[in-house]
Design a protein that fits this description.
The structure is a single chain. The protein is α+β, with helices and mostly antiparallel strands. It folds into two domains: about 5-125, Rossmann fold, CATH 3.40.50; about 165-390, 4-Layer Sandwich (Phosphatase 2c, domain 1), CATH 3.60.40.10. The chain contains ten helices and 16 strands. The strands form three sheets. The chain has a six-stranded antiparallel beta sheet, with helices on one face. It is elongated, with a radius of gyration of 28 Å. The mean pLDDT is about 85.
Length: about 400
């Protein structure tokens, strides 16, 4: 977890000990700063902001305990490891009480012990930082949820603004992938929602949701969806490791959440995770039609899959489907409101036409806008949402 180029500050008035610790830790891949006493160490700390401090306990001017105390007063979470030859139990207890990450006794017969302590302290520090970041994100989502409830009751206009602010930036480009979306509400507030975000360094997640009904109550569920996915991402990272984050498990989590909320609302959803290192798309379907449409090599086709709507049945389970991604492709996700724009007397006729329209649009959102005439739409009976993710398309 820790950065291999982490900066360490060694503070020790014994030049031989200081030099030997620095040489070993530098050989282990760390960048090492040195100071010969506590006062100089504080000056270096304030100037360089190292990732970790290794200090002696008995030093002139400012001893190790005072050093730990002053670093704590700076509201710094930088871990401090004490390496001391004093060997007094009360000193060790006091150092740990003040916040020292570890207490080692000189002489160190094997410097591997020090390296292990440094790496462990850096891992813990990085984990605390990551957890704080996601806790702040969760708290922000909580505040947005509370604000949204109030605004939706008082003012449809303010409610719409909150909903729009929760939508991701469009278009959004990440490592060769491009995401673009458009939502056209039948009322001022929409029950359709899309989101996409990075899960970690190799994975990007996305979904399109169509909430049953219209208006403020359906729009509130889209806020709840944003909150639940944000919370799930935070909870997944809280222990320092992120599990598979499978789309089927995310849909299951949302299914349970909606049922427990007893809002009388359900959602049809399409959710997916792109693994950039494996070049695969894993997706899951929660009762949603039309199915996703893949456009590659000039042809468009529906992806396979089925599943129950989300938020209706306690026993609902969802399946993951894995697809190797073509070098150049687009994937189009649509809410069922798009079917109201298509000719045909039956659902089968309308669905048969969709891949042809995606193909004529060459898999782009701009092309779909033209094909469906979205710029000229009047009042529609249902919300319409489009989400297109693509790679290497002209």
């Amino acid at each position: 977890m820790h950065s291999p180029s982490a900066t360490l500050l060694i503070i020790d008035d014994d030049e031989v000990v200081r030099a030997s610790l620095a040489a070993y830790l530098e050989d282990s891949g760390f960048h090492v700063l040195q100071a010969s006493n506590g006062l100089q160490g504080l000056q270096v700390f304030e100037r360089e902001h190292p990732d970790l401090v290794v200090c002696d306990l008995r030093m002139p001017q400012v001893d190790g305990l005072e050093l730990i105390r002053r670093i704590g007063e700076m509201e710094s979470e930088t871990p401090v490891i004490v390496v001391s030859g004093a060997g007094v139990m009360s000193d060790a207890v006091e150092a740990l009480r003040l916040g020292a990450a570890d207490y080692l006794i000189k002489p160190l017969e094997d410097l591997v012990v020090l390296e292990h302590s440094v790496r462990r302290a850096l891992d813990r520090s990085n984990l605390r930082t990551e957890n704080r970041r996601y806790r702040e994100k969760l708290e922000t989502a909580n505040r947005e949820l509370q604000a949204s409830l109030h605004l939706l009751q008082e003012d449809q206009n303010a409610g719409r603004q909150v909903q729009m602010n929760m939508l991701p930036v469009t278009p959004w480009k990440v490592d060769g992938l491009k995401f673009a979306h458009q939502i056209i509400p039948s009322l001022y507030l929409s029950g359709d929602f899309v989101d996409y975000f990075r899960v970690d360094e190799r994975r990007v997640a996305f979904y399109l949701a169509d909430v049953s009904g219209h208006g403020a109550s359906s729009a509130f569920v889209t806020v709840l969806l944003k909150f639940m996915t944000t919370r799930l991402l935070y909870e997944s990272r809280r222990n320092g490791t992120l599990p598979e984050f499978k789309p089927s498990e995310v849909l299951g989590h949302i299914n349970r959440g909606l049922i427990n909320c007893k809002l009388g609302k359900h959602v049809t959803m399409l959710g997916g995770v792109i693994d950039e290192s494996a070049n695969t798309l894993t997706y899951s379907i929660g009762g949603h039609l039309p199915l996703p449409i893949l456009f590659a090599e000039g042809e468009a086709r529906y992806l396979e899959g089925r599943g129950l709507p989300v938020g209706l049945f306690n026993e609902a389970s969802y399946d993951d489907h894995v697809l190797d991604m073509p070098t150049a492709f687009s994937l189009t996700l649509l809410s069922d409101g798009i079917l109201d724009l298509l000719p045909g007397d039956t659902l089968k006729e309308k669905e048969a036409l969709l891949p042809k329209l995606v193909s004529s649009a060459e898999g782009s959102l701009d092309g779909l806008r033209q094909v469906f005439g979205l710029a000229k739409l009047g009042e529609m009976p249902d919300d319409i949402a489009l989400l297109v993710l693509s790679r290497n398309l002209a």
